[in-house]
Amino acid sequence: MSISNAILRSTVYLKRHGLVATIRRVQLAGNRALFADRMAVLYCDLSERGLPQINVPVVLKVKRLRSLTELSAENLKTMTSFWNPKLANRNIRERFEKGASLWLVECQERLAGYGWTLQGRTMAPYYFPLAQDDVHLFDFHVFPLYRGRGINPYLICRILDGLATNCRGRAFIEVAEWNDPQLSSLRKTPFRCLGSARSFTIMGYTLVSWIKNDIVAQINKGTDPADQIFGTATK
Ligand SMILES: CC(C)(COP(=O)(O)OP(=O)(O)OC[C@H]1O[C@@H](n2cnc3c(N)ncnc32)[C@H](O)[C@@H]1OP(=O)(O)O)[C@@H](O)C(=O)NCCC(=O)NCCS
């Protein structure tokens, strides 16, 4: 995130939540940036994925939007009003301009969550270059009222399904290692962990360091064919 964006976000947060909450939020962001900036990078072969059965207690509808004009004013407001409207609007416009698709998941006609995909490239420098047929999944969000019901893994599986009809490459997604809800959610999808990485972009150059830790085993546990046949040893 650029310094100007960070200042803009902090200013809006200050207006909404007051000084004490803002100081706590800035401390948390600082700690995460300095000590918990590792990302687990996950992949899924679009030609080989086996989609798991996700049980969701409600009927959900998934829609793919390819331009801003397809997004209703009400959904745009829902998507932009919960954090920084100015930055959120700018992000949405830039993403559509670069060819990204926005996937909405609706529960009883109301927006429950969303996620983005971009084929062949990423919005920001990535850990490695993507091939033309690869797709990046990013910025997934389920609104608080709908969390914990399997909506995010359901949306991700529907997206993988939709992408696989035209695309035979790999899908990639990354998640901060501190983000337990998203890690848990991704374990319910066909995504498997490639590794753990840190990246820094300086003057247009992106430096990536891959870190050896147990995140790969933690995420992939139970999805290795050997695990499925022989079971995983647990104590
Ligand atoms: C991460 C996120 C997308 C998961 O969506 P979801 O539809 O709730 O996903 P799931 O139903 O699979 O729940 C995932 C985990 O959330 C946690 N959870 C359960 N109920 C919850 C609730 N009411 N509120 C918050 N988190 C809850 C649980 O740890 C759950 O894991 P479990 O099923 O193994 O217990 C959602 O929490 C979210 O939007 N978070 C904020 C944005 C974010 O972090 N996005 C991902 C990075 S781009």
From TrEMBL:
Gene3D superfamilies per UniProt: 3.40.630.30
Source species, domain of life: Bacteria
InterPro entries: Acyl_CoA_acyltransferase (IPR016181), GNAT_dom (IPR000182)
Presence of the UniProt keyword Transmembrane helix in the record: no
Domain N-acetyltransferase: 63-215
One of the record's GO molecular function terms: acyltransferase activity, transferring groups other than amino-acyl groups
UniProt entry keywords in alphabetical sequence: Transferase
Pfam families in UniProt: Acetyltransf_1 (PF00583)
Record protein name field: Acetyltransferase (GNAT) family protein
